[in-house]
């Protein structure tokens, strides 16, 4: 039986077992997908013991995504650029290959759920400079976005992304975020603002062009205040749940040998 898992701390609330469990059943794969709580001090030992424990690989979630990089024998170009690993594959020789599928998940969600959105058409405004922002920025650059305007409350963090990832990234002042929406083709919230239990994202959308697409990586609630406001004024919106679904696709294929299809039914299962 093929075996994979998600590791994190805490990992209790991870939705990955449901996503992968759905596909294991759908495709009749003889496999299992578990969740394992791994403390920071246990990470190295756990990863190094994956082959012996019979794993095909694992997903990595908070707080281990960045720390896991150092324990990989090989990294995908994307994982290197993002500086974090969310998908690990145990190779035939026992070596560990680290990938990051968050950028793919973010982009694929927009491609699948928008009305022919063209990334190359104009500037993207990205709010936030945490781990999720790095994956979004790498994904957008690879899709040919001509310019990314990065806005974060803490200035050093957006500058660090610009320096480390490279490409046409400009940084602006978080306080100016409303007027800086002028001319955007895409607006992305990668901050935690708007998430259940967090503060709201305060953002007047008046300056945002009506043909811009607005997306939020927050999916609880599914329709954030940002998305509802954007929709009310006629902007195309894409909610965040699809990023979670699509980022799981490459891992499932690596471990279980089937490229799974994301279906709407899965959203009900994870929300
Ligand atoms: P993730 O890895 O999920 O992106 P993170 O690294 O904790 O999470 O990043 C959270 C993001 O939300 C950051 O961009 C953070 O801004 P700071 O870098 O200034 O901390 C942003 N964020 C959190 N609370 C915020 C608030 N009250 N106002 C503005 N931005 C906030």
Describe this structure in words.
By secondary structure, this protein is α/β, with parallel strands linked by helices. It folds into two domains: 2-100 and 244-270, Rossmann fold (3-Layer(aba) Sandwich); 103-239, Rossmann fold (3-Layer(aba) Sandwich), CATH 3.40.50.720. Helices cover 32% and strands 21% of the residues. It has nine helices and twelve strands. The chain has helices at 16-26, 43-48, 77-82, 102-113, 131-142, 155-165, 225-232, 241-256, 265-270, and strands at 2-8, 31-37, 57-60, 74-75, 87-90, 96-99, 123-127, 148-152, 169-173, 184-189, 213-216, 236-238. The strands form two sheets. It has a six-stranded mixed sheet. Helix 4 crosses helix 5 (131-142). The longest helix has 16 residues, at 241-256. The two termini are 29 Å apart.
CATH superfamily caption of the largest domain: NAD(P)-binding Rossmann-like Domain
Supply the number of helical segments. Answer: 9
Cα-atom Rg, whole angstroms? 19 Å
CATH architecture of the largest domain: 3-Layer(aba) Sandwich
What portion of residues is helical?
25-40%
Structural class: alpha/beta
Work out the strand percent.
15-25%
Largest sheet geometry: 6 strands, mixed
How many E strands? 12
**Could you please say which CATH topology of the largest domain applies here?**
Rossmann fold
Unreliable residue runs: none
């Amino acid at each position: 039986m093929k075996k994979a898992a998600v590791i994190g701390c805490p990992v209790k609330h991870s939705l990955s077992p449901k996503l992968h469990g759905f596909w294991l059943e759908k495709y009749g794969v003889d496999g299992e997908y578990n969740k394992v709580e791994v403390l920071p001090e246990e990470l190295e030992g756990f990863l190094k013991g994956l082959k012996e424990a019979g794993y095909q690989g694992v997903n990595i979630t908070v707080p281990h995504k960045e720390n896991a990089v150092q324990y990989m024998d090989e990294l995908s170009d994307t994982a290197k650029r993002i500086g974090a690993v969310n998908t690990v594959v145990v190779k035939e020789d026992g070596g560990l290959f680290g990938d990051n599928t968050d950028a793919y998940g973010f982009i694929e969600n927009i491609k699948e759920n928008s009305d022919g959105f063209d990334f190359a058409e104009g500037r993207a405004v990205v709010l936030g400079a945490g781990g999720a922002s790095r994956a979004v920025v790498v994904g957008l650059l690879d899709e040919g976005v001509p310019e990314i305007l990065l806005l974060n409350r803490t200035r050093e963090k957006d500058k660090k992304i610009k320096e480390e990832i490279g490409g046409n990234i400009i940084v602006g002042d978080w306080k100016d975020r409303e007027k800086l929406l002028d001319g955007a083709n895409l607006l992305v919230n990668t901050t935690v603002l708007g998430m259940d239990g967090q503060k709201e994202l305060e953002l007047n959308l008046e300056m945002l062009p009506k043909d811009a697409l607005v997306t939020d990586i927050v999916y609880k609630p599914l329709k954030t205040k940002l998305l509802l406001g954007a929709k009310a004024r006629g902007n195309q919106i894409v909610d965040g749940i699809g990023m979670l679904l699509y980022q799981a696709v490459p891992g499932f294929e690596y471990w279980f040998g089937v490229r799974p299809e994301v279906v709407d039914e899965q959203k009900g299962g994870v929300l």
